[in-house]
Amino acid sequence: MMRLFDTRARSLEPLVAGRTVRLYVCGITPYDSTHLGHAFTYVAFDTLVRYLEHLGHRVRYVRNVTDVDDDILRKARELDLDYTLLAAREVARFEDGLAALGCRQPDASPRASQVIPAIRQAVSGLLERGVAYALDDGRVYFDVGAAPGFGAFSGLDREQMHRQFAEKGGDPEATGKRDPLDFLLWQPSADDEPSWDSPWGPGRPGWHIECSVMAQEELGATIDIHGGGSDLVFPHHEAEVVQAESLTRQAPFSRFWLHTGMVGLEDVKMSKSLGNLVFASDLRERYEADAVRRYLLSHHYRRSWDHDEGDLADAAAAVKRWREAAGNDDERPDLAEAFHAAMNDDLDTPGAVRALDEAAAAGAGRTLRALAPVLGLSLTS
User: Fold this and answer.
1) Cys bridge to 72: 31, 61, 82, 291, which one at CB 3.0-4.6 A?
2) CATH architecture for segment(s) 18-265
């Protein structure tokens, strides 16, 4: 049986699921190009989908687009471009980039702008439940004091939460709040921002409520796996948990929470704000897709790591060896067993890659042909 590390439980747990596995992965805010950190996250989840299908599951994979958000609106303002046009351009580039790395399209790609009526209904429901409050200026906040479990998901103390909340787009110093960590559910729009009517005045949704609503609209009140980068644990996923479970009075919102590590450059996390980005498109100009994908999968999805050009070159050479060996007809059941043991152990793709390296060295072409596609590698030049 497959085991996965559940961030909420902080432990490896057996994946108990029905025939259909419902998976939601937080997507991009489409205002800039796809960097290696994005590629790492979405290749990892694409591989999870492929392996679950290999085990006989059907997977309903939902990956959202956050097209109403402070970042995209700020970028559109800087470019003097309509935010919808900026989103369309960057989503197309993002999807093309992932397709070039062998990632398949999710079953649904909802956009925040498309679910505003459902968001309004969710905000109204939270107000009715007494876990949210509206201010006279049109802001609506979730009341973290009304959710005793707030902070349990991330395990952060209050000082850490306050710091991360401020660093990641929160407004701890805003006036009128009951608690500095209360987060926006609805806010008035600036004059040049998109705006929708609501019972609290014209405005737009907060970031966190968008994902809770999109996930539940597509997958129901309880889903099997919710994923994203580890930088989303707090406040984004912490907020999603308390919103969703307060609204539906059902727990858990997600049975598993999976988080990918961060990709760095010279020991510093890649980020748009720092400008220290390695773009996946640049790597594809010098290396074929199978090489880049193998390079990404040689790192465990939960581990943070630094980009290394030498390791990427080694991955390209290894893919060449796999292709040369794939023409043989030998097989190694023991290495196939090792491959599956690794994948069942918290999606240990580095272990699975090592098993296929051994298969290539042994000339076990049949084993390579059977299992390389599970990792999304085509073995064709």
Assistant:
1) 31
2) 3-Layer(aba) Sandwich (3.40)
